[in-house]
Design brief:
Blueprint: H1 30-51, H2 83-96
Length: 97
Amino acid sequence: MTSSSTPRMHTYKRTSSPRSPTNTGELFTPAHEENVRFIHDTWLCVLRDIKSPQNSERNDRGPQEYVEKNPNPNLHSFIPVDLTDLKKRNTQDSKKS
């Protein structure tokens, strides 16, 4: 195994995350926050690598963006749902009840 194929390990301090909601009444364990930070930071690395001009030079390595070869015509008008916005609206609706 070469050093370039060695997985990168990240260590994080277990502190309150700025992404942790403070007004929802939900409590997150330090392990949960660490997992969220890891996924978030790793996803940002993937996005950066995909957008990198060097990405086209390394077709067989690194992240690759999936694009449908034959898109489903039924999904042409699909609009993704913003889950954060949906949760806010549901929370507001429950407070009105």
